[in-house]
Amino acid sequence: MNFLRLLPVILSLLLLAAHFYRAGIELLAGICLVLPALLFFRERWVPWVIQGALFFGALEWLYSLYRFASLRIALEQPWTRLAIILGSVALFTALSALVFRCRAVKQRYSPSTDYIA
Known about the structure:
It contains five helices and no strands. The chain has helices spanning 2-22, 26-34, 46-74, 80-96, 103-108. Helix 1 (2-22) packs antiparallel against helix 2.
């Protein structure tokens, strides 16, 4: 069931990977493709890393919105639909970080005390 809860996170990271790959930034695209694999590790730092990536991903979407809308405005082309789409993707990316506030997901990444180290 945690897979369904984490699905928005995975989709956001895959969208970011496609965005960076399309922009020709293969290193960031590769990082975004590898980040979902971290979700398999039950470590306390995993949510922090993923949430940080999603935060900076949302900022990247907003920066892209600014760049593309500015270009379209300068060329006197319609830009409203572009702003709605990229704004929605930025909002989805930012809100997907809230998945880690869910109780079941919190328990998955909290230190376990049921074993003896």
